[in-house]
TrEMBL record:
This is Response regulator transcription factor. SMART domains: HTH_LUXR, REC. It holds the Pfam family Response_reg. Coiled coil: none annotated. InterPro entries: CheY-like_superfamily (IPR011006), NreC/VraR/RcsB-like_REC (IPR058245), Sig_transdc_resp-reg_receiver (IPR001789), Tscrpt_reg_LuxR_C (IPR000792), WalR-like (IPR039420). The modification 4-aspartylphosphate is found at D59. Residues 8-126 form the Response regulatory domain.
Length: 222
């Protein structure tokens, strides 16, 4: 039986002790490997472009450029197979977190998270089949999308009934397997619907599609 490929990770945090602690936890897992570190946002951009990791753990607040701008620059420079970026923050309601998600981050992780949660987060985001902490994402979206709902987005009319259902289920945080079970279809069919939702909403991943749905009023975060 062939071994499962390791998830390659870059750590970006201006505190050496934080990076060391994260490395110890992640490298203890057979399927995870830290391949690089960065102490500033600018360094993170350079290291990620050089090493092309699968996942980046990105501190929100760093010298030179912050994690939001670093996320934007990484994703703009690596349009072919970009890494999945998880922003690391002290407070889950930090406005920087939502800005980072809008910039293209796939999710966020609290610095006080337990080791098991860290490992689970990296594995989950590398598979790209579910949202990270959907309830917290809904809370952030609700906080940042107050006011009257905008006009329906142009992409809404392009969604089939099944695709619209998939998008709403994605917004609840269900995995592909859970969506398939809920809808009574096969995993391959669900995967096809998810791909169509991403293409029609112009989203890079599930998180971006759900944010687009929230901000357009197509799905209510409340």
């Amino acid at each position: 039986m062939s071994e499962q490929p390791q998830v390659r990770i870059v750590l970006a945090d201006d505190e050496r002790m934080v990076r060391t602690a994260l490395r110890v936890i992640l490298d203890a897992e057979d399927d995870l490997r830290v391949v690089g570190e960065a102490a500033t946002g600018a360094e993170a951009v350079s290291v990620v472009r050089e090493l092309r990791p699968d996942v980046v753990l990105m501190d929100v607040r760093m010298p030179e450029i912050d994690g939001i701008r670093a996320t934007e620059q990484i994703l703009a420079g690596l349009t072919d197979g970009p890494p999945r970026i998880v922003v690391v923050t002290t407070f889950e309601n930090d406005s920087y977190v939502y800005d980072a998600l809008r910039a293209g981050a796939a999710g966020f992780l609290l610095k006080r998270a337990a080791a098991e949660e860290l490992v689970q987060t990296v594995r989950l985001v590398s598979r790209s089949d579910s949202l990270l902490f959907p309830s917290a994402l809904r809370s952030l979206a609700a906080e940042h999308t107050r006011g009257p709902a905008p006009s329906p987005p142009a992409w809404a009319a392009r969604l089939t009934e099944r695709e619209a259902q998939v998008l709403r289920l994605m917004a609840t945080g269900l995995t592909n397997a859970e969506i398939a079970g809920r809808m009574g279809v096969g995993p391959a069919t669900t995967k096809t619907h998810v791909a169509a939702v991403l293409a029609k909403t112009g989203a890079r991943d599930r998180t971006q599609a759900v944010i687009a749905a929230y901000e357009s009023g197509y799905v209510s975060p409340r």
